[in-house]
Amino acid sequence: MSVYVKLFLIVLAAALLLLCYFSQRSRQTSRLELPDKKTMELSSPVFTNNGPIPQRFTCDGENINPPLAISQVTEGAEALVLLVDDPDAPMGVWDHWVVWNIDPRTETIAENSLPAGAVQGTNSSNSRKYIGPCPPSGTHHYHFKLYALDTDLDLDPSSRKSDVEVAMKGHVLDWTDLIGTYLRQ
């Protein structure tokens, strides 16, 4: 084996170790302590929990957010946070939508819209908008996680999901999730 091949393999191994280290560190720093009891509800009129997300709301369609319905928000909530991610992504969890400071009186999020006053953060595509499901292969699960907080979040709009999760620590009153699936044809 040539010196160049050996050097390449050493650099590749070091890069993989660093990737694993930072991926694990990110998971550890953003882990939230969540209440056991969930009373809030999040649903969609276009897909059921663990059901397929219509193509219209994916990269193969219009790539717009699906409509969502919010109910039974915990009393005392000052703000809601919506995080949409794909834990089945090949390189680790992929963040599709990061939204905070949603008014807790919000009952619906219409398709292709953002609630008034809410802030969109930066997703894994380095954009500040909804990015629809676009799995490279197989069926992926998309988690629409809604949190009720006892405070607004004072974050820069360029903040990522990990920043939002750190700011949420100690402020989560309630939470719920809705899971949709998508398989590209």
Description:
The chain has 185 residues and is α+β, with helices and mostly antiparallel strands. Helix content is 19%, strand content 28%. It has one domain (32-182): Phosphatidylethanolamine-binding Protein (Alpha-Beta Complex). The protein has helices at residues 3-30, 161-168, and strands at residues 41-43, 51-52, 68-71, 79-86, 94-102, 108-109, 119-120, 140-149, 172-182. The relative contact order is 0.22. Residues 20-29 have low confidence and may be disordered.
Q: How do the helices and strands line up, and which of them pair or pack?
A:
Elements: H1 3-30, E1 41-43, E2 51-52, E3 68-71, E4 79-86, E5 94-102, E6 108-109, E7 119-120, E8 140-149, H2 161-168, E9 172-182
Parallel strand pairs: 2-9
Antiparallel strand pairs: 1-3, 3-6, 4-5, 4-8, 5-7, 8-9
Q: End-to-end distance, in Å?
A: 43 Å
Estimated structural class: alpha+beta
Q: Biggest sheet: strands, sense, closure?
A: 6 strands, mixed
Q: Uncertain segments of ≥5 residues (pLDDT<50)?
A: 20-29
Helical fraction equals: 10-25%
Q: Which geometry do the CA atoms define? A: globular
Number of domains: 1
Mean residue pLDDT: 88
Task: Label this structure with key terms.
185 residues; alpha+beta; Phosphatidylethanolamine-binding Protein; six-stranded mixed beta sheet
